[in-house]
Design a protein that fits this description.
Length: 135
């Protein structure tokens, strides 16, 4: 079974907030519990990514969705912290992990080993913390 359970990469979690307001939050289920996602599915959102951000809250990540399988390059331009970049194919299987990618690596770009459909970015060490592995 894939580290990102085969029920699908993304599910939706319905949260009820004070005052009866509902919020739908995309999540993925890992072996160590859910991760809440910021979804990046437009070209401009994918280009911006986490650049300029100061960090990710606990149990959150950025989830990039591509319209088809591809081999996108990711770089650490304007990043303020290290990341794990998790490369996921169209069948929702983790193909590889670029661990502990430092902002100091810019302008180097990182690529998946095979075409992918999704990318999950977590703070450095997140893949290990949530027991996300290849396959």
């Amino acid at each position: 079974m894939s580290a990102l359970y085969r029920r699908g990469v993304a599910t939706l979690l319905l949260l009820v907030l004070a005052g009866g307001i509902f919020l739908i939050v995309p999540t993925i289920q890992t072996p160590r519990g859910p991760l809440f996602l910021q979804v990046s599915n437009t070209s401009s959102e994918r280009i911006q990514g986490l650049s300029g951000s100061t960090g990710l809250p606990w149990r959150t990540g950025m989830f990039f969705v591509f319209p088809e399988e591809t081999t996108p390059g990711f770089w650490m331009k304007d990043m303020n912290y290290s990341l794990d970049i998790i490369w996921i194919d169209g069948r929702c299987i983790v193909q590889s992990i670029s661990a502990n990618v430092s902002p100091d690596s810019f302008p180097t770009s990182f690529y998946p080993e095979v075409p992918i459909r999704y990318v999950l970015e977590l703070p450095a060490g997140g893949a290990s913390r949530y027991a996300i592995t290849n396959g």
